[in-house]
Design brief:
By secondary structure, this protein is α/β, with parallel strands linked by helices. It has a domain of about 160 residues: P-loop containing nucleotide triphosphate hydrolases (Rossmann fold, 3-Layer(aba) Sandwich), CATH 3.40.50. Helix content is about 35%, strand content about 25%. The protein has a seven-stranded mixed β-sheet, with helices on both faces. Strand 9 and strand 10 form a beta hairpin. Helix 3 packs across helix 4, helix 3 packs parallel to helix 5 and helix 5 packs parallel to helix 6. The longest helix has 16 residues. The chain starts with a strand and ends with a strand. The structure holds adenosine-5'-diphosphate and magnesium ion. Magnesium ion binds next to helix 1.
Length: about 250
């Protein structure tokens, strides 16, 4: 992981449903890092991701991105271009897997030949080659999620926000999705994942932040390799939970 910040949100506040849903003095997202964002239902995870993606306006927030510090309203178009938000039940067009993955590229003004080459490569990447001609709406939940990941990756975002990506997946689909997330990281794409599956997903994560009562709490911030060692020791030595189960107030 590269510890260099990709973007920073300062004084991020959102008032919703008669309360301050989000009140976050500082959120730093690192380049090519993997951050897990946890929190109870209704804690504001989806709202936070949409603000980061430039899709939903906060009441206030300044964004430090690409060498500039701007109010969210001035930065949100740039965020939209470089950050992709993936819904937990991705919307797929009633067309082939190939057409779904190619969709964003035609909008980016690429030629047919270039689109074809890039889509073929991305189908391979996602292990979807054998499903290329199938209607995307007829796939399983896990396959749909992989189509959505492929469609997002082909746009070469700097940051991918995955909202509960494993929510309705069987074991094999989860493992494949973990594998693709690992690949995205190694390709230099930052990933933020909302998930309740800390045990398995922790091996991918560089950071774990927890959202509660509008505040962000930092659970761990260690190299994944060190975390793996800690977890092995914890599991070997006792029945205790791995070390990332305990919250500490965010002191960044
Ligand atoms: N448009 C809205 N108007 C009023 N309340 C909303 C609106 N959108 C979301 N909320 C509320 O904001 C809270 C946070 O929602 P959300 O960000 O989806 O949380 P999470 O993803 O953590 O479950 C929830 O209590 C939800 O009911
Ligand atoms: Mg949500």
């Amino acid at each position: 992981m590269n510890a260099e910040p990709l973007m920073q949100f300062l004084n991020l506040q959102k008032y919703l449903g008669g309360r301050w849903l989000l009140d976050i003095p500082e959120l730093t997202i690192r380049r090519a890092g993997c951050m897990i964002l946890s929190g109870d239902n209704g804690a504001g995870k989806t709202t936070l991701l949409k603000i980061v993606a430039g899709l939903e306006p906060p009441d206030s927030a300044d964004v430090s991105y690409r060498g500039k510090l701007l109010p969210w309203r001035a930065a949100h178009r740039d965020l939209r271009r470089n950050v992709v938000y993936l819904h937990q039940t991705p919307y797929l067009f009633d067309r082939s897997v190939t057409a779904n993955i190619a969709y964003g590229l035609y909008h980016a003004g690429m030629t047919r030949a270039d689109v074809k080459a890039k889509v073929t490569q991305t189908l391979e990447w996602a292990g979807l080659g054998h499903l290329a001609k199938r209607n995307a709406r007829q796939l399983s939940g896990g396959e749909k999620q992989r189509v959505a990941l492929a469609r997002a990756r082909i746009l070469s975002p700097q940051l991918l926000l995955l909202d509960e990506p494993m929510a309705s997946m069987d074991y094999e689909s989860r493992e494949r999705t973990y594998f693709l997330i690992q690949r995205l990281k190694s390709e230099g794409i930052g990933v933020v994942i909302t998930s309740h599956e800390f045990q398995r997903i922790a091996s991918l994560a560089d950071e774990h932040v927890h959202l509660q009562g509008g505040k962000l709490y930092r659970n761990f911030d260690r190299p994944a390799s060190e975390l793996d060692i800690n977890r092995k020791l914890a599991l070997e030595n006792s029945d205790s939970e791995p070390p990332f189960a305990v919250s500490e107030p965010d002191i960044r």
